[in-house]
Amino acid sequence: MRLTLPQKVSALVRGWRYRQELRHLLVRRFWQQHESFDVNIDGLRASFDTSDFYSNFSFYMTEHEEVEPPVARMIAQAAPTARSFFDIGANLGYFSVIAGLAAPSLRIDALEMDRSIYPMLRRNLERNGVKGVTLHEGAVGETAGTLRFQPHLYSFLAKCAPEDAVVPELEIDVPIIRIDDVIAKLPKPPDLVKMDVDGAEVDALRAADTMLSTPDLVMFLELHSPLLEARGQSLGDVWEILARHGLASYQITDHRSHGGGLRKLESFNGLPTNDMVLVTRRDPAEIWP
């Protein structure tokens, strides 16, 4: 029997709905069976609370036993000799916890714009005994102001599961903060930085001259080319800012798996989206022999 066009469309819609319902069921079942995400990074043990849906899916979406293991290891190894650590786009606090466990006396400043996930971030810090972390609320940008956006928690749930908590219309206003304005209130600028700001790389770096001029800076920067393009910006703009400060960039190969090799870059052309690069003036071989 040959289906008519309306019948084909109807079958396609029903099939998609059932596929989505099955996905929701499987995700919920997986969530209910995993209340923590535990990692062991070269003997450094950390545990993250995944009793809520957002945290569970965020951590368990990885195919590996760790999240971005090469980056986590490099931060853990660099933290004991660092002056302070800036976690820009801290999210659930994964890298703040890693740095804090590796160097308990290290000053840590966590910058996160989404206060809806603060309870989860704080819970992970407390769970691992990481103390003294200063939390800065705000979206990093070039000029001070206000940004309106939909919190991660609600936008995530709206996309992944029909949870009762979903309020797709919910939006919140957060201050836009300049990285150098935060640094101006500190004794010294950070020398160890992780930045993952979902397309705001250019705007954030344009207000970070003090940080980028720090002689011993070691920065892990995640690049989001499609999100940059949506702002009318590009990876070339990021490269120009870093090069102007005399910083070299290295691709961290397979940074989401168990890779971790470094390849010095001549440009950001051809890098895959959501790639992580190491940015520094130092010789990486001196930091990670």
Can you characterise this structure?
The chain has 289 residues and is α/β, with parallel strands linked by helices. Helices cover 37% and strands 22% of the residues. It contains twelve helices and 13 strands. The chain has helices spanning 5-32, 53-60, 69-78, 94-102, 118-127, 152-160, 179-183, 201-205, 209-212, 225-230, 235-244, 284-287, and strands at residues 36-41, 44-49, 84-88, 107-112, 133-137, 139-140, 145-149, 172-177, 192-195, 218-223, 248-252, 262-264, 275-280. The strands form three sheets. The chain has an eight-stranded mixed β-sheet, with helices on both faces. Strand 1 and strand 2 (44-49) form a beta hairpin. The longest helix is centred in the first third of the chain and has 28 residues, at 5-32. The protein is globular, with a radius of gyration of 20 Å. Residues 163-168 have low confidence and may be disordered.
Keywords:
single chain, 289 residues, alpha/beta, eight-stranded mixed sheet, three-stranded mixed sheet, 12 helices, 37% helix, globular
What's the SSE blueprint?
Layout: H1 5-32, E1 36-41, E2 44-49, H2 53-60, H3 69-78, E3 84-88, H4 94-102, E4 107-112, H5 118-127, E5 133-137, E6 139-140, E7 145-149, H6 152-160, E8 172-177, H7 179-183, E9 192-195, H8 201-205, H9 209-212, E10 218-223, H10 225-230, H11 235-244, E11 248-252, E12 262-264, E13 275-280, H12 284-287
Parallel strand pairs: 3-4, 3-9, 4-5, 6-8, 9-10
Antiparallel strand pairs: 1-2, 7-8, 10-13, 11-12, 11-13
